[in-house]
Amino acid sequence: MPVPLVLHGSSGVPDAGLAAAVAAGMTKINVATQPHGLHRRGPRLPGGRTALVDPRRYGAAARDSVAAEVTRLLGVLGAAC
To answer: What are the residue boundaries of the structural domains of the chain, listed by start?
Structure first.
């Protein structure tokens, strides 16, 4: 009986490891922690200070950094983007 395999907590797993997991039959890989971290770190001012201002001003940068990482991960995992 086939059993679907899930990789919980893939943050910190190298890209080659993620690709190898898919090649070995991993059917679901959780990747939320890494994009969430990028979203939190996205809104920065010069000098690394956090921009605590109107979220519409920094939301685009946060969204763009998460979109880029998700697109990269989809490529690593062999998905069509």
So the answer is: 5-76
Six token digits for residue 26? 């991993």
Output the pLDDT for position 2: 75
pTM: 0.51
Q: How far apart are CA 25 and CA 71, in angstroms?
A: 21
Q: Tell me how crowded residue 31 is: count the other CB atoms within 10 A of its CB.
A: 19
Q: How far is CA 61 from CA 6, 15, 24, in A?
A: 31, 24, 35
Residue 79's φ and ψ, nearest 5 degrees, are -90, 150
